[in-house]
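Could you join me in thinking about how sequence relates to backbone shape in a protein? We need material for that, and I hope you will provide a protein of your own picking. Once you have written the record down, we can walk along the chain together:

…
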Amino acid sequence: MYEIDDPVACANCPLQACPGLRSLEERQLAYMQGFKDGEIGLERGDVLIDEGAAHDRLYTVLDGVLIRSRSLDDGRRQIVNFMFPGDLVGLQGAFDEPSSHAVAALIDARLCRFRRNDFVELISTHPRLGYDITWLAAKEETALEGHIVSLGQRSARERLAYLAVWLLDRAQATCLADDRNIVSLPITQAQIADMLGLSLVHTNRTLRQLEREGLVEWKSRTIHVPDLARAAEYAQFDYQADRCRPFI
């Protein structure tokens, strides 16, 4: 993890151009410029937040993708979610609690940094931005509900198809993928297994079956969903429901 020497001015924020993110108004951008506490960069595998650690900063993902996970004492890991540009990271720290999870970079990432204690002023000065923070927290809970349903009710093929469609949808909405339905993410089969509660053997077998059926082509560094509508219908995922998210 390292400090960015040339942080992006909020007026030139690249997130403003992403189709799945709601752009901030000029007065909000001006406020956020003074609210922002710099930027940091992460290389793939860098840990931003350690599980169980206290921290006094929150972050917005400006570029890249992060993994949120929890671990058991014996080393087993559950990947809880993936975090894309526009997502607010470390929200639990705003409520004076140590982090219940770890956050690490799946690919090289760049994040805007904010002081945790300043969020009281943000909410009182810009109630709309305060509402957006609440919305982001609620939307993450909705995403977690979808992942829980996968773990509890979906078959292995449905779990993998749902995850692929969800990842592609988030990537397209946040300028990390175009309309070719291909996203470049180096997600290993072990990480897929950690997310979906499958063994490595079952994960590998299911990926091959989905590829034979033309639903998902999941390689070591890319995910391709040839027919997004068909895959979304198969996984029972509404890939249009997650548009125009706010960001801070």
Summary: The mean pLDDT is 90.
